[in-house]
Specification:
This protein has helices at residues 2-18, 268-275, 288-291, 300-306, 332-344, 368-371, 377-384, 403-413; strands spanning 32-37, 44-49, 56-63, 72-76, 80-83, 91-101, 104-105, 112-115, 149-150, 163-169, 176-177, 191-199, 209-220, 223-231, 238-240, 245-252, 258-265, 276-277, 280-281, 294-295, 298-299, 310-311. The chain has 416 residues and is an alpha+beta fold. It has 3 domains: 32-115, Immunoglobulin-like, CATH 2.60.40; 119-322, no CATH class; 325-416, no CATH class. The chain has a 6-stranded antiparallel sheet with strand order 9-10-12-13-14-15, with helices on one face. Helix 5 (332-344) crosses helix 8 and helix 7 (377-384) packs antiparallel against helix 8 (403-413). The longest helix has 17 residues, at 2-18.
Amino acid sequence: MLKKACLLFLFVSIIFSCNNDDDIIPVCDTVTNISSNAITNNSATITWETTSTSATYTLEYGVSGFALGSGTTISESDTDAQLINLQANTTYDVYIQTVCSSSNISLHTDVYSFTTALPNVATEFKPILSEMNLFVGNLENLQITPLAFEYNLNTTLFSDYAHKQRIIALPEGTSMEFDGDGLPIFPDHTVIAKTFYYNTDERDLSLGRTIIETRILIKLNGAWETGDYKWNEEQTDAVLDLAGSTLPITWIDASGSSNSTTYKIPSNTDCFTCHNSNNDIIPIGPKLRSMNFEINGVNQLEQFISNQQLTGLSSSSSVRVLPNWEDTSLPLETRARAYMDINCAHCHIPGGTCADESTLNLAFETPLEESNIVEQSVVIDYRVSFYSEGLSMPFIGTTMRHTEGLNLIQEYMNTL
């Protein structure tokens, strides 16, 4: 009898509960179709879709891999949210919950991830090099930000046998503009950087290198400004140093010989000495004629044109070429004039630092009879034959004779 009574009670309870559907709480659905847009180097907008018309939403986010409960949490009533104060070039994870009521909250969504944009290259001199955003990853690797590009010169300036990495960062949506064979027109906020380093042993590059300095030019309001960053011993960063300094350096060259010098990092005054043109600062290296050559089978200027980094020029064939002074297949005069152009002509041309003290015009395109090289050949031979600070040539920028360059110049002088 008791068993029948229990069964009757259970049946009545079921019937009663089935006749009160209004008391059932609907399941709070999770959102769908999460996406991101308007991503910058420090912010992003997250959007989603929902079937819950009167719900609110809780977002938790953090650097990819963070544990739920340890991230940043925000609440939103709309179906989008702006995340701010993010780190540049960083992947973030986002989870979203739908809040239908205080007692009815959905499960977390599956993780949604996005990556912030690269930081913009700084267009003012920061206290340390890493804040200039010219490189990504560990600074010592010198991995160039995708917002900049490397350039090279067909014939290079001698700087105590140091290696150099050269890069240009143009403002977004701009380009270098063709303006003849010389320097292109760079837009304001262009950054040009050159990093100097020595390989520990030229025969085995796996032994590493010592990075000395990174020189930077920034174009602001139509004028170039200079700054120099001295690298620390740990090779983790570099500090803005406008006063100049010296650093002992040793390296083993390709022949196995040990070399040493007291490397001189230039002061801002020294920078002006070489970069002076009619009392304005200008770049020296990135002239179109100096960059008009093939690298790994591809012409560098053609690559710039293709990448829309250089405009106003349809073909590299219309630009002259400054020859490579190390190319022994070229005539002696051609090689010597190319060497003097890159090493000497920034001072020994009209408007250069030495224009009032010398009659020389050592630009490669200057006809020999107008250059005064023949008339001054004895002086040129003497001034490059030894190193003495303030007397020998180049006037600054080196601490030793350049054996290969000296032999080239003296061989040429002997033909005049």
